[in-house]
C-alpha cells in the first residue's frame, strides 16, 4: 500500500500540468481514502489535468459528485435475478460500456461467486457487509450532528 501512495504522489510531481493525463487508484484504508481524496482534489482544483480515477469507495464518489471539474462514470452491467437477500442468485453481465453517473451498487459478492467462493461463505460476508454499513452510517450521522 505504501508504494501505491508514493507512486501517486510522484505522479502529482511529475505530471503537474493541465496538458497531461493522469491515472490513479484508491486504497482501502481510511488514511488511503483520505490521501486519494486529497490527490483527486489537487488534480481537480490545482493541476486541472484529465484523470481517470477508479475507486470502489463511495465516500470519494460522494465527496466529488458536485465538483464541476469532475465527471462520474461507471461500467454498465445487466443484473438478472437481482436478490438483495441472496446475492449468490444474481447473474451479472458486464456490458463493456462506459455510462455517466456513479455506479448504483457494488458487485463484489458476484465477483466472489465467479471466483468459486462457496455460497455459505458469501452469505456470511454479506451479513458482515451489512453490519459494516450500519456502523458507518451511524458514525456519519453522529459526525453530522457535531
Automatic annotation (TrEMBL):
The keyword DNA-binding belongs to this UniProt entry's keyword annotation: yes
Gene3D superfamilies assigned to the protein according to its UniProt record, in alphabetical order: P-loop containing nucleotide triphosphate hydrolases
Superkingdom of the source species: Eukaryota
Keyword ATP-binding listed: yes
Signal sequence annotation: none
Domain DNA mismatch repair proteins mutS family, first and last residues per copy: 2-130
Keywords, ordered alphabetically: ATP-binding, DNA-binding, Nucleotide-binding
PANTHER family linked: DNA MISMATCH REPAIR PROTEIN MSH6, DNA MISMATCH REPAIR PROTEIN MUTS FAMILY MEMBER
Family affiliation: Belongs to the DNA mismatch repair MutS family.
Name the record gives this protein: DNA mismatch repair proteins mutS family domain-containing protein
Amino acid at each position: 500500500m505504501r508504494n501505491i501512495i508514493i507512486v501517486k504522489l510522484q505522479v502529482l510531481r511529475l505530471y503537474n500540468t493541465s496538458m497531461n493525463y493522469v491515472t490513479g487508484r484508491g486504497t482501502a484504508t481510511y488514511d488511503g481514502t483520505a490521501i486519494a481524496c486529497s490527490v483527486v482534489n489537487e488534480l481537480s482544483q490545482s493541476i486541472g489535468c484529465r484523470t481517470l480515477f477508479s475507486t470502489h469507495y463511495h465516500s470519494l464518489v460522494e465527496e466529488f459528485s458536485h465538483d464541476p471539474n469532475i465527471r462520474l462514470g461507471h461500467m454498465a452491467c445487466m443484473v438478472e435475478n437481482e436478490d438483495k437477500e441472496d446475492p449468490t442468485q444474481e447473474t451479472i453481465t458486464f456490458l463493456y460500456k462506459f455510462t455517466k453517473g456513479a455506479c448504483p451498487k457494488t458487485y463484489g459478492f458476484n465477483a466472489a461467486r465467479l471466483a468459486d467462493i462457496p455460497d455459505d461463505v458469501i452469505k456470511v460476508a454479506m451479513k458482515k457487509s451489512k453490519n459494516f454499513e450500519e456502523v458507518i452510517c451511524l458514525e456519519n450521522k453522529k459526525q453530522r450532528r457535531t
